[in-house]
Backbone:
């Protein structure tokens, strides 16, 4: 079926929905990028890998709050609106960043500092569990049918921009502060900045307009809005979101948040070089998202998802093996870029695909909860599983694990129906056929 003629691109809605997402993910990823400096602040002195394993464990625990956040905030977004949910999530993220910034070290308060760190990560997990769906639904619903892939791709543009800000700040601090100062107190600076930035975005998001799609549906239906009972009527879509997210989120976190640690802890590159590699590949990756999203508006979503699934299944093991012996900046940059080009087939359109699967009155919950479950099980544990394999002396086992999960998602992509022309409201000139057959 041919793509519908695109309408005008709503840049105000895209910017408004994305800028908050940028700050949310800056705070979320800055934990991972600065963990190499604060790992020793919250745990007893000892093996550096063991300290990283502890901080990665807290990172993973934060992901297990995502299903709770997906349920509570997804329901909130369906019942109270996308704008209200976006405002709430960024408020929670500001508070959690501030908690990390002031958390006492192990030398000062023993394990109490680690408990504060854990509480902050749980709050962040709760917030991000709802942010993903609220942002995805807002960007998609606020955009004409022929532009949805392009517009929703800015979710990963903003996510990546947030990570780039974190990495850029890390590189700046690495060149302006001594290693001792960074390990002592310098790592707190990005969390203070994150808390202040979130406060600014909170003000900006209060001026967003609610989507017309949500307002129109609100007048038609309210009884079962955002309930688990209603979501279970769409259990096929629920399971589909879990399966199609599985390989994508694991590959994404492998080649983004874990990459800096992998290059320094396994490939043996200096921390400054590893950070610079991550910054460069993420910048290019960010620029690819709108191009791939726009392409999906022309050729459909499935071709891009299938290209990711096949590429990740076949290339992960050789790429990670080669990265382990990357001798310098150039080799690490090229190999990492290949991995993220492959991942673009998933990241650029996964949000819009999920939104297109569900009706308006349960859309945010339908996107949030299954995505959060899959992210908790696979994306959030990526670093922990990778470091566990490394500590056990079986690091190559992690490469095969990523490839196997991508293969499972590939199977789903092959057998699912195209969602590009799914109607978000009954008023849209689009087929009403069920976009799921798995």
Residues:
């Amino acid at each position: 079926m041919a793509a519908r003629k695109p309408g005008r691109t709503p840049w105000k809605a895209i910017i408004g929905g994305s800028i908050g997402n940028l700050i949310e993910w800056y705070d979320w990823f800055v934990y991972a990028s600065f963990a190499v400096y604060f790992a020793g602040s919250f745990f007893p002195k000892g093996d550096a890998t063991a300290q990283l394993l502890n901080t990665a464990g807290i990172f993973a625990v934060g992901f297990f709050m995502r299903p709770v956040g997906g349920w509570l905030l997804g329901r909130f977004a369906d019942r109270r609106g996308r704008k209200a949910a976006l405002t709430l999530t960024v408020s929670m993220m500001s508070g959690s960043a501030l908690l990390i910034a002031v958390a006492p070290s192990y030398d000062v308060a023993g394990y109490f500092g680690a408990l504060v760190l854990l509480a902050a990560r749980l709050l962040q997990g709760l917030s991000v569990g709802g942010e993903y769906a609220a942002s995805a639904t807002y960007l998609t619903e606020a955009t004409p049918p022929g532009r949805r892939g392009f517009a929703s791709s800015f979710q990963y543009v903003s996510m990546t921009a947030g990570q780039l800000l974190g990495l850029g700040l890390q590189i700046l601090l690495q060149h302006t502060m001594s290693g001792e100062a960074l390990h002592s107190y310098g790592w707190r600076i990005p969390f203070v900045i994150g808390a202040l930035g979130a406060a600014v975005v909170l003000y900006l998001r209060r001026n967003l307009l609610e989507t017309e799609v949500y307002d129109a549906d609100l007048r038609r239906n309210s009884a079962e809005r955002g309930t688990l009972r209603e979501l279970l009527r769409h259990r096929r879509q629920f399971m589909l979101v879990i399966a199609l997210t599985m390989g994508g989120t694991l590959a994404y976190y492998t080649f983004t948040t874990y990459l800096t640690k992998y290059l320094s802890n396994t490939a043996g590159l200096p921390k400054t070089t590893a950070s610079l590699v991550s910054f460069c590949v993420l910048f290019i990756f960010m620029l690819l998202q709108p191009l791939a999203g726009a392409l999906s508006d022309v050729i459909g979503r499935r071709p891009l998802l299938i290209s990711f699934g096949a590429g990740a299944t076949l290339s992960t093991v050789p790429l990670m093996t080669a990265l382990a012996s990357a001798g310098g900046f150039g080799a690490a940059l090229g190999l990492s870029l290949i991995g993220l080009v492959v991942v673009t087939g998933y990241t650029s359109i996964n949000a819009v695909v999920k939104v297109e699967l569900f009706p308006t009155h349960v859309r945010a919950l339908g996107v949030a909860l299954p995505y959060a479950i899959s992210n908790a099980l696979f994306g959030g544990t990526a670093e922990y599983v990778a470091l566990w394999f490394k500590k056990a002396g079986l690091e190559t086992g992690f490469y095969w694990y990523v490839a196997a999960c991508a293969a499972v998602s590939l199977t789903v992509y092959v057998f699912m129906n195209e969602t590009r022309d799914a109607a978000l409201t009954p008023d849209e000139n689009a087929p009403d056929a069920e976009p799921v057959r798995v």
Observations:
- Residues 429-438 have pLDDT under 50 and may be disordered.
